[in-house]
Automatic annotation (TrEMBL):
Highest taxon listed in the record's lineage: Bacteria
Signal sequence, start to end: 1-19
InterPro entries for this protein: DUF5777
One Pfam family of this chain: DUF5777
Organism: Paraflavisolibacter caeni
Domain DUF5777, chain residue ranges per copy: 45-288
Name the record gives this protein: DUF5777 family beta-barrel protein
Keyword Signal: yes
Annotated keywords: Signal
Length: 293
């Protein structure tokens, strides 16, 4: 735990000390053809995540992003657990741009020792006077590897879940962006026959730019009732404060979701803001460009 915190702090200090003139967003879009820049409304969001929810943004062709998502324990654990700082959940991810519109990603979360693979395809791009929004199709598959001594019946197929999201965003001004994210979640195995294997959720999120290098983000993911019966699931509500430091974006996070990938924050959020089940944490993203110059 301590090593994880120290590693992340070192990365943050490094990002501040060695920040470049090139912004993260510029590196993500580094390979976009020059003639498109005149018409395209670029930079709908600062990074590839609003907080937990993916944005319409993705690495450009031959661009690589390294993402660290870190959540401490619940704040209401009190002084004994240092208000959650004694505990942590972490995810590492890599996303690579195959083309300017299509990227793939892999990740690993400590929660349930989960591996994930994803793709993002930018179907539409907001342009001045022609296309009012940007739309991306996002697909994710997860595989849990946590060992259960009391569940010998679990096979590989039981450990798989899928998420598909249609990400639709509009940049209303240089400071304000919104995104709507209808989502479908499928679990190969559910706890009881009363629980549905296929779930539907609707997310909304936005970004408000405060200064040239800071912004405020928020997201809300609504899971309609009646789909899960065996446990109480709360809607995921998250807030973030972004600080851009050159090729990095550092985001301070407050959320009631411990999990940071689709099946968890959409369908397994057990925390309640009213009860103080709030997880403080951060996201750090770093972009690299392999474009030939």
């Amino acid at each position: 735990m301590t090593k994880n915190i120290i590693t992340c702090l070192i990365l943050l200090i490094n990002s501040v000390a060695f920040s470049q003139d090139t912004t993260l967003l510029k590196q993500l879009e580094d390979s976009m053809p020059q003639q498109l820049h005149q018409d395209v409304s670029a930079g709908t969001f600062k990074a590839t995540q609003i907080i937990n929810t993916p944005t319409v943004e993705s690495p450009g062709k031959n661009g690589l992003q390294f993402l660290i998502m870190h959540r401490f324990g619940r704040i209401n654990e009190g002084a004994y657990a240092l208000w959650g700082l004694d505990n942590a959940t972490i995810r590492f991810g890599l996303d690579y741009g195959i083309s300017n519109r299509f990227s793939i990603g892999v990740g690993r979360s400590s929660l349930d020792k989960t591996y994930d693979g994803s793709f993002k395809w930018k179907m539409l791009q907001q342009t001045k006077g022609r296309m009012p929004l940007t739309a991306s199709l996002y697909g994710l598959m997860t595989y849990t590897t946590l060992k259960y001594d009391d569940k010998p019946y679990l096979t590989s197929k039981h450990r798989i879940a899928y998420v598909t999201q249609l990400l639709m965003a509009r940049k209303f001004s240089s400071r304000l962006s919104f995104q709507l994210s209808p989502s479908w979640i499928h679990f190969n195995l559910v706890p009881t026959p009363e629980d549905q294997n296929d779930l539907f959720a609707l997310g909304i999120g936005g970004r408000m730019k405060i200064t040239k290098r800071t912004s405020f983000n928020a997201e809300y993911n609504y899971l309609p009732t009646g789909q899960i019966s065996s446990t109480i699931v709360h809607h995921s509500v998250s807030f973030g404060f972004d600080i851009e430091t050159g090729g990095h974006v550092f985001q301070l996070v407050f959320t009631n979701s411990e999990g940071m990938i689709g099946p968890y924050y959409l369908a397994k959020t057990s925390g309640s803001w009213g009860d103080g089940d709030i997880f403080f944490g951060f996201n750090i993203s770093r972009a690299f460009s392999f474009k030939k110059r």
